């Protein structure tokens, strides 16, 4: 499956002092960002994407993946201390973490969260290492028709699972496709939607779109809330070390929740937030102490934390093997992969396995570092959350503007990012999720190219998208995902109707 | 009744959906002039957006009418105040100003001016801390991009004009 020499050489590369320093630095930055409620990986990753430009692909992917992991790690601390999750992925952690903090066991809860995240992270990485090559081998059999249907399925899944209505998800996805089609057409070389602009002829680059949609729009939302600081200062009491040992008393919970997280991560569109709640609810149902959940029980922290960190690596599985991002952050990560000239899928696993192994080793080391740094840094988390927004917002804008400018030294990229930021803010405010927009923007060139190639191969027959076995399955899945919400509603209604009829019948 | 309809029609979602329908229809007529291979994909997507926006518009209208007649708006989150909305507009304006400042005065001077001015006008009044944070952020970003990444940062049009 993997070459042993490649693992050894990856170890050599990751253990170079520059890379170790980078992993340490990014872990610390990520944890700090994670502590700040409202600023999650969707804001952090775009800002760091341009920094990876001058780096080798391996370390660049490590940087992005470690940042993703560390922000998710850090998010639980503010959930426990302040009852305000740092990221959506830690929302369920509040339910038992905060009651523990109120009982004077905040340190214990943080320790539990750190160790559960560590073990969940390992399960996720193991899944990534062992499941990915199998899926990649399977993807080798795909032809353009399958790639097109897979891209369509990815988009439909993400639009269907996004917050708000499916219709709004589709509108956002459609707009993403359209913005991506600005510039020279890949097949004919014809200029589309350029309106005579030389800048638009080259197409709108990914980076300004990502920075604008997710970093700038978030800053505008932050300002709109009108708070002076991100959060009130919380108090840390209780010993973290006690908490670090606690998860080992609940091995079943740990394994079950990690597997739930991994499984949810693999499904495109289902993110860490879904994993977090699903694992919590599954644990609450299966535990003998189910009725105590919500009052501050350790399992209530173990389950969501193990799941959301397993989900982080799980979301990278479809991203790296099929080129279908597992979620919004994975879409940005995929952008990072493509920026370095790598094509996700079988090619990545066959021709660039060395880079992937560097990523895996980097993730394993980062997981250890995050446990260590997270346990120490959490003491100071409460102080970070009192940074005034009037200082934080301009700082994020500065970093975003410079990140965008530094890529191509093109002032119009900065303007594109600002326009994308305002657009993203307005759309999000009125219920249009921007993740389908981003996924469509990334998948559009692949989908369009595959669509034309498939039609050429089938001599213009559209039946190729339905009649080939795999693309046919993808087609059925698309239909199922689209019909299911209405079908389940109808089933529920008919069930309740039959119950009402039964109860109204004279006995 | 007319006033009520007017209120319903002026909701942001209605305006967005209606605007999208108009915009996409115009684009669709424009796209039809493209060569066949270049128009298929954007044409299909534009048509899809028009249909989705139309159904969303109908859905939002129905929801709005129901919410208005039933007076079931108690679960809605309190909207941001006018001052906070103004702050959003102001910050968006500041982003544009910063991009021009940076090009005109160069990275360092432009960023120092932007960070200090925006921090102050957004309500932070501790001059010592504001100056310190302005300096730290400007230098850190310079260190990352200008020194470590060796990226090209704007030197300032004004200085090149003065130099000449």
Q: Tell me, rounded to a whole number, the average pLDDT of chain A.
A: 84
- pLDDT under 50 segments of chain B (min length 5)? none
Structure class of chain A:
mainly alpha
SSE run of chain A: HHHHHHHEEHHHHHHHHHHHHHH
The best one-word shape of chain B is flat
Instruction: Report the span from N to C terminus of chain B.
Output: 68 Å
Described by strand count, sense and barrel closure, the largest sheet of chain B is: none
**Largest beta-sheet characterization of chain A:** 2 strands, antiparallel
End-to-end distance of chain A, in Å?
Answer: 66 Å
Number of strands of chain A: 2
Q: What fraction, in percent, of the residue positions of chain B are helical?
A: over 70%
Number of helices of chain A: 21
Q: How much helix is in the residues of chain A? A: over 70%
Average pLDDT over all residues of chain B = 84
Please work out how many helical segments of chain B DSSP would assign: 7
Using the CA coordinates, give the radius of gyration of chain A.
23 Å
Task: Name the shape of chain A in a single word.
Answer: globular
Q: How do the strands of the widest beta sheet of chain A line up side by side?
A: 1-2
Fill in the keyword field for this structure.
heterodimer, A: 507 residues, mainly alpha, two-stranded antiparallel ribbon, 2 strands, 1% strand, globular, B: 164 residues, flat
Question: Secondary structure elements and their pairing?
Answer:
The complex is a heterodimer of chains A (507) and B (164).
Chain A: H1 4-14, H2 17-35, H3 41-48, H4 57-82, H5 93-139, H6 144-161, H7 166-180, E1 183-184, E2 191-192, H8 198-201, H9 206-225, H10 240-245, H11 251-266, H12 272-286, H13 299-322, H14 328-339, H15 346-351, H16 353-384, H17 389-408, H18 411-429, H19 435-457, H20 464-467, H21 469-504
Antiparallel strand pairs in A: 1-2
Helix pairs in contact in A: 1-16, 2-4, 2-16, 3-4, 3-9, 3-14, 4-5, 4-13, 4-14, 4-16, 5-11, 5-13, 5-16, 6-7, 6-19, 6-21, 7-19, 9-17, 9-18, 11-12, 11-13, 12-13, 13-14, 14-19, 17-18
Chain B: H1 2-9, H2 12-31, H3 36-70, H4 82-105, H5 107-121, H6 127-148, H7 157-163
């Amino acid at each position: 499956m993997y070459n042993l020499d490649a693992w050894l050489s990856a170890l050599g590369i990751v253990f170079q002092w520059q890379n170790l320093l980078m992993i340490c630095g990014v872990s610390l930055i990520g944890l700090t960002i994670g502590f700040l409620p409202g600023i999650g990986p969707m804001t952090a990753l775009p800002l760091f994407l341009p920094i990876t430009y001058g780096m080798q692909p391996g370390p660049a992917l490590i940087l992005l993946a470690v940042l993703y992991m560390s922000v998710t790690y850090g998010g639980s601390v503010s959930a426990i201390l302040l009852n305000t999750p740092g990221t959506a992925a830690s929302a369920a952690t509040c339910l038992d973490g905060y009651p523990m903090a109120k009982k004077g066991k905040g340190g214990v809860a943080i320790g539990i969260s750190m160790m559960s995240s560590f073990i969940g992270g390992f399960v996720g990485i193991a899944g990534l290492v062992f499941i990915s090559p199998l899926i990649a081998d399977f993807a080798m059999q795909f032809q353009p028709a399958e790639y097109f249907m897979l891209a369509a399925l990815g988009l439909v899944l993400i639009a269907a699972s996004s917050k708000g209505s499916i219709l709004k998800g589709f509108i956002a996805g459609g707009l993403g496709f359209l913005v991506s089609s600005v510039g020279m057409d890949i097949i004919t070389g014809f200029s589309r939607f350029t309106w005579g602009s030389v800048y638009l002829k080259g197409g709108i680059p990914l980076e300004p779109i990502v920075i604008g949609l997710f970093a700038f729009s978030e800053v505008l939302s932050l300002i709109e809330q009108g708070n002076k600081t991100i959060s009130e200062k919380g108090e840390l009491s209780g010993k973290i070390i006690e908490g670090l040992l606690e998860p080992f008393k609940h091995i079943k919970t740990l394994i079950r929740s990690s597997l739930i997280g991994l499984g949810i991560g693999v499904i495109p569109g289902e993110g860490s937030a879904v994993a977090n709640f699903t694992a919590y609810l599954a644990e609450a149902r299966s535990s003998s102490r189910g009725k105590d959940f919500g009052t501050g029980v350790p399992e209530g922290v173990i389950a969501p934390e193990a799941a959301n960190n397993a989900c982080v690596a799980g979301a990278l599985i479809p991203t790296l093997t099929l080129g279908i991002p597992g979620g919004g952050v994975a879409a940005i990560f995929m952008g990072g992969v493509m920026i370095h000239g790598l094509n996700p899928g079988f090619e990545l696993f066959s021709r660039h396995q060395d880079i992937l192994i560097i990523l895996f080793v980097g993730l394993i080391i980062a997981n250890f570092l995050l446990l260590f740094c997270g346990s120490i840094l959490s003491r100071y988390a409460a102080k970070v959350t009192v940074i005034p927004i009037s200082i934080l917002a301009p700082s994020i804008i500065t970093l975003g503007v410079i990140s965008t400018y530094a890529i191509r030294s093109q002032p119009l990229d900065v303007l594109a990012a600002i326009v994308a930021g305002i657009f993203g803010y307005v759309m999000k405010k009125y219920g249009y999720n921007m993740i389908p927009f981003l996924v469509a923007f990334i998948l559009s060139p692949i989908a369009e190219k595959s669509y034309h190639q498939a039609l050429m191969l089938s001599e213009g027959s559209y039946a190729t998208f339905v009649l080939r076995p795999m693309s046919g399955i993808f087609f059925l899945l698309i239909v199922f995902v689209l019909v299911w919400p209405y079908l389940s509603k109808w089933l529920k209604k008919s069930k309740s109707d039959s119950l009402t009829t039964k109860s109204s019948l004279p006995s | 009744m007319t006033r009520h309809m007017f209120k319903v029609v002026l909701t942001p979602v209605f305006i967005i959906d209606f605007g999208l329908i108009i915009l996409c229809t115009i684009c669709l007529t424009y796209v039809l002039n493209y060569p066949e291979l270049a128009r298929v994909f954007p044409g299909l997507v534009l048509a899809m957006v028009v249909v989705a926006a139309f159904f969303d518009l109908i859905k939002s209208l129905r929801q709005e009418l129901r919410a208005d007649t039933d007076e079931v708006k108690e679960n809605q989150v309190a909207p941001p105040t006018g001052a906070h909305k103004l702050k959003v507009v102001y910050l968006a304006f500041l982003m544009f100003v910063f991009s021009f400042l940076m090009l005109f005065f160069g990275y360092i001077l432009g960023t120092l001016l932007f960070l200090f001015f925006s921090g102050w006008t957004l309500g932070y009044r501790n001059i010592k801390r504001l100056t310190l944070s302005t300096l730290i952020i400007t230098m850190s970003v310079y260190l990352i991009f200008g020194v470590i990444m060796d990226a090209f940062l704007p030197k300032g049009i004004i200085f090149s004009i003065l130099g000449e």
